Structure formats: C-alpha cells, structure tokens
Amino acid sequence: MIKIQGIKKSFGQLQVLKGIDLEIGKGEVVSIVGPSGAGKTTLLQIIGTLDRPDSGTVAIDGIDTSSMSTRKLAEFRNRHIGFVFQFHQLLPEFTAIENIMIPAYIAGRSTKDAKARATELLEFMGLSDRAGHKPNELSGGEKQRVAVARALVNNPAVILADEPSGSLDSKNKQELHQLFFNLRDKFGQTFVIVTHDEQLAAITDRTIKMRDGMVISISDSDKSEPAAGPDRDSMQEQNSD
Ligand code: ADP
Q: What stretch or stretches form a coiled coil here (predicted)?
C-alpha cells in the first residue's frame, strides 16, 4: 500500500532524512517510534504528500506521488489519505457531523452522501448522540474520535496519525488505540502512527524505529493472527510478557 524508496530530506544544512526505504502492506497498523528530532514527523508528512522529499519516491497504492503537480497532489491527498494529529484541529464553529463532512464536500460528494457516511462513522464510534455538538461541547476523547471520523470520511486507503493519543488521558488513549484496530478490521485501512506511546507501539503489527534520520530497526509484533485479532487487551498482555 505504501512504498518508499531512498527518501532524503534536508532543512538548510540539517539532513533530517538520510535515505529511507519502507514497504507497508494493506491493512497493516504500523508504528513509527524514536527520539525527538529523529525525523518521524518529517517522514509522515512526506508519506502524506504534505511535504516533498529532496530525492526518492513515495508510492501509495501503486500510484507514484513524487512527480504529481501540487494541485493533483492536493486532490490525491484528500481522497486517499486521512490525517489525525495530536490536537484534533476541528473547526470550532461547526458541529461534529459538519466537521466530519468537510473533506467529503471538498472531494465533491453530495450532502446526502457525505451525511450518510458521517452518520455511519459517528455510529461506529459510539458518538451518534454527539452529532450536533460543537467541539467545545465535546470531551477530549470525543473530539479526537470525531477527528478520526473526519479522517475516514472519504474512505482513504491510508490513515496517517502523528501522536494521535498524545493529548489524551490513559482511558481515552486506550479507547482510541482500540478504535484504530476496530477500524482497520471493519474498513481495511492501513495505519501509520508516529507515537511515543510504548503501549500502542507494542500492539501494532510492526514497529519502525528511527534515529538520526534513519530506520534503525523494524520489529514484528509477536502476535500470531495478523488482521483478525479483535481482543487487543489479551494481546497487550501477551506483548508485555
Ligand atoms: P521527530 O518527529 O522525530 O521529532 P521531526 O521530523 O519533527 O522529528 O524533525 C526532525 C528535525 O528536523 C528536527 O531537528 C527539526 O527541528 C527539524 N525540522 C523539522 N521540520 C523543519 C522545518 N520545516 N524547517 C527546519 N527544520 C525542521
């Protein structure tokens, strides 16, 4: 689903990515970990086509994004990639359901279609009764779940998340992590998650460790059932053994 070859990126004199090669399969939930400044966010932004590499290629679902025009990239991104950030970045003047519908509008979908999809997602997230609430009327965990629903509204193949649970307390954190796996199991999305959260990294399918602009290791989680493991709590226990 994601194929990255030879990605290099510098900001001024600082080489932040020193040649990254990675392949991530459809439906994988992968975490990227490593110390601050390792280049994780830069890599995620490049995968998400929010930034361009100095050299190397990124292909999403077989489509090479490296040579696309800026306008084409924006369209591609809105349809194929969903983003979840540490802070929800919902628009305060719109309700939960309206926030979720915005990327669908941008993609040119009808109000009816956008609303049906947003309603389905809210229901899946257990937030149906919050549809008409504005962000300031939602809890932190609810806001973040609305942000995840917004990322999913166009049914993108790939969801990229940068410290998605970084601003949440431990209960909401666990719920959000569980949600990622539930979504993958239901909709088949590929998740790439930059995180400092060791508990989350431990339950993802693979953990990519970065340091100093390079991938220094890729470890498979030792669970035996790749996609169909609904019981993440017991998995977490296995992994912490
Ligand atoms: P991480 O996510 O692993 O903490 P980042 O990818 O955010 O690392 O940053 C890697 C390095 O690149 C840091 O030293 C950071 O200061 C620098 N950096 C990131 N973005 C920019 C930018 N737009 N301009 C200049 N330096 C940047």
A: none
> Quick check: 235 pLDDT over 60?
no
Q: CA neighbours within 13 Å on the CB side: how many for 1? A: 20
ipTM: 0.97
Residue 36 phi/psi, 5-degree rounding, is -55, 140
Decide whether any atom of ligand 1 lies within 6 Å of the 11 Cβ: yes
- The CB of 31 under 6 Å from ligand 1? The reply is no
- Say if residue 86 is exposed, middle or buried (CB neighbours under 10 Å; 0-12, 13-18, 19+): middle
Q: Cα separation of 121 and 115, whole Å?
A: 10
| pTM score | 0.87
Neighbours of 87 (CB within 10 A): 14
Residues 6+ apart with CB under 8 A from 91: 98, 99, 102, 135
Per-residue pLDDT of 115-144, as tens digits, reads 999 999 999 989 999 999 999 999 999 999
**Longest CA–CA separation in the chain, Å:** 51
Residue bearing the CA closest to ligand 1, atom 5:
39
Q: Kindly give the number of the ligand 1 atom that is closest to the alpha carbon of 44.
A: 6
